[in-house]
Amino acid sequence: MILIDGKKTSAEVKADIKQEVEAFKAKGGKTPHLAAILVGNDGASETYVASKVRSCNEVGFDSTLERMGKETTEEELLAKIDEFNKNKDIDGFIVQLPLPSHINEQKVTTAILPEKDVDGFHPVNVGRMALGQPAYISATPYGIIQMLEKYDIDTTGKHCVVIGRSNIVGSPMSILMAKNSKYANCTVTLTHSRTKNLQEYTKSADIVIVALGKPGFLTGEMIKEGATVVDVGITRVPDESKKSGFRIQGDADFESCAEKASYITPVPGGVGLMTVASLMKNTLAAAKKEIYA
Ligand code: NAD
Question: What residues contact residue 106 under an 8 Å CB cut-off, 6+ apart?
Answer without folding.
Answer: none
